[in-house]
Amino acid sequence: MTGEATRGLEFDPIEQARTQWVESGWADAAAGMAAVTSLMRAHQIVLARVEATLKPLGVTFARYEVLMLLWFSKRGSLPMKIIGSRLQVHPTSVTNAVDRLEDAGLVTRSTHPEDRRAYLVALTSTGRELAERATKALNTEVFEQPGLSGRDLRTLVDVLTRLRRSAGDF
């Protein structure tokens, strides 16, 4: 990446786009466009920080989420269907993540003892150790320093919760 791409701009391109939306006769959509575009850019920024933190540990955020879901489960294992439901992702995404985690020796997969059509995914001791190291790194490098005040964080979570609820997320 060149220095130009990593240096901040001298203006806010999203605010400029909002102004151009208004000037183009789309004033009713301008605030929504700015909000959605800001959310998408914030996602890129946060995901880049998270992935940079996890990369040295050899795990993506999607796989980390699976590890932590298993880590928090009472038995250290869950059916694949439950993993997909809790993470709100397509079964193919769960299969892909579990395949990679299994190849790395971080989880095991076996036939569910009560439903032979289902698979049970279990955290290995190596997976548990990696989940703990990754959580420590994310807490230190990302979650404890998100770039917002405590009050702003509460407001952001409240607003995003309302957005998610209105979209039928829960």
UniProtKB/TrEMBL annotation:
Keywords: DNA-binding, Transcription, Transcription regulation. InterPro entries: HTH_MarR-typ, MarR/SlyA-like, Tscrpt_reg_MarR-type_CS, WH-like_DNA-bd_sf, WH_DNA-bd_sf. Residues 32-165 form the HTH marR-type domain. Pfam families: MarR. One of its GO terms (biological process) is response to stress. The keyword Nucleotidyltransferase does not apply. The keyword Phosphoprotein does not apply. It comes from the Bacteria. GO terms for molecular function: DNA binding; DNA-binding transcription factor activity. SUPFAM superfamilies: Winged helix' DNA-binding domain. PANTHER family: TRANSCRIPTIONAL REGULATOR, MARR FAMILY (PTHR33164), TRANSCRIPTIONAL REPRESSOR MPRA (PTHR33164:SF101). This is Transcriptional regulator, MarR family. It comes from Intrasporangium calvum (strain ATCC 23552 / DSM 43043 / JCM 3097 / NBRC 12989 / NCIMB 10167 / NRRL B-3866 / 7 KIP). The lineage of its organism: Bacteria, Bacillati, Actinomycetota, Actinomycetes, Micrococcales.
